[in-house]
UniProtKB/TrEMBL annotation:
Catalyzes the interconversion of methylthioribose-1-phosphate (MTR-1-P) into methylthioribulose-1-phosphate (MTRu-1-P). The record marks 154 as: Transition state stabilizer. Substrate binds at residues 48-50, 89, 193, 244-245. It comes from Actinomadura algeriensis. This is Methylthioribose-1-phosphate isomerase. The active site is at 234 (proton donor). Signal peptide: none annotated. Pathway: Amino-acid biosynthesis; L-methionine biosynthesis via salvage pathway; L-methionine from S-methyl-5-thio-alpha-D-ribose 1-phosphate: step 1/6. Keywords: Amino-acid biosynthesis, Isomerase, Methionine biosynthesis.
Length: 347
């Protein structure tokens, strides 16, 4: 991005979060020093997106350890606070994985936990770059010729990670190679991550984009206006089934019907080999108010309730390929995310 913003950073005694609830109207930061405030920030989507949640979870443990010392908690109280962070949102596996990654450092104290959390952050920055390069190589080879018309759903950009994004990392890399004509950004009802966040990032980076209603996406694809869709992921099951923001499944079905590729871009930390298939992925259901009102005004008749699943699951057979930091797996052709290869090892 050209704007000097950092989605998530550790100051030494607090977690500094770019408040994504007020973007694009305002660029504001929130400094979080206690577990209650962090859990609230995660639930309100001040910080959001699977990789950023992983970093927040890791630093959340450092926050809990510091708070335990400050407030004289015993180990059980500290561990209960860590569990609250781990469970603040259920679908993105990165949150729990970020917490679990730093847990072994807890006996060494907050500084050691924060150092490990910083490693999680730094790895995400590097992973984003590698995902962008691998995904761009794959798409460029798959769709040779003129600059591409891409479609993305939700926000899988810098705002969802510690770096330059996963799906938007691929878009940025293609843009750097002069291979992007246009990005259709689905607005992403009900919280508008596409309209508010993806469009903001793409504008800041000078990448041409149009925001469209989510319901327009399948028809935009079927009309031949899109060469490929690129999305992120919140959790990828061992068989390749992929949970992402609700609405992703409609994009996937349309891509399959139109015969264009659906590329999922995600780090290995989003792959959950303990979850066998998509049916086992917990899907967050959010407050009905997000559906019942728009801009603070009720839009649904009084007395009518709402169903608000925040994610859906795209079956592996509809995911053409998965771009990770180690390379691209052709999922619908049968490749499944098995054990993570070592760097340099073929996939
Ligand atoms: O509810 P959100 O905004 O946290 O949902 C985010 C998404 O669905 C993203 O596409 C996903 O986390 C991948 S972010 C690189």
């Amino acid at each position: 991005m050209t704007t000097d913003v950092r989605t998530i950073a550790w100051t030494g005694d607090a977690l500094r979060l770019l408040d994504q609830t007020v973007l694009p109207a305002r660029v504001e930061y929130l400094e979080v020093r206690d577990v209650g405030a962090l859990v609230d920030a995660i639930r309100r989507l001040v910080v959001r997106g699977a990789p950023a949640l992983g970093v927040a979870g890791a630093f959340g443990v450092a926050i809990a350890v510091r708070q335990a010392v400050r407030e004289g908690w015993d180990d059980a109280e500290r561990d209960a606070a860590i569990a609250r962070v781990r469970e603040a949102r259920p679908t993105a596996v990165n949150l729990a994985a970020g917490v679990d990654r730093v847990l072994p450092r807890v006996p060494e104290g907050a500084a050691a936990v924060a150092a490990e959390a910083q490693a999680v952050l730094d790895e995400d920055v590097r992973a984003n770059r590698a995902i962008g390069a691998h995904g761009a190589d794959w798409l460029a080879a798959r769709c040779p010729g003129r600059p591409l018309r891409l479609l993305t759903h939700c926000n899988a950009g810098a705002l969802a990670t510690a770096g330059w994004g996963t799906a938007l990392g691929v878009v940025r890399e293609l843009h750097a190679r002069d291979r992007v004509e246009l990005v259709y950004a689905d607005e992403t009802r009900p919280l508008l991550q596409g309209a508010r966040l993806t469009a903001w990032e793409l504008r800041e980076s000078g990448i041409p984009c149009l925001v469209q209603a989510d319901a327009a996406a399948p028809s935009t694809i079927m009309r031949g206006l899109v060469d490929a869709a690129v999305i992120g992921a919140d959790r990828i099951a061992a068989n390749g089934d992929t949970a992402n923001k609700v609405g992703s499944l409609g994009v996937a079905l349309a891509c399959a019907a139109a015969g264009i590729p659906l590329l999922v871009a995600a780090p290995w930390s989003t792959i959950d080999r303990a979850t066998r298939s998509g049916g086992d992925i917990p899907i967050e259901e959010r407050a009905a108010e997000e559906i019942l009102a728009f801009g603070g005004t009720r839009t649904v008749p009084e007395g009518v309730a709402a169903f608000n699943p925040a994610f859906d699951v795209t079956p592996a057979r509809l995911v053409t390929a998965l771009a990770t930091e180690t390379g691209v797996l052709e999922v619908s052709a049968g490749a499944v995310p098995g054990s993570r290869p070592q760097v340099g090892e073929p996939l």
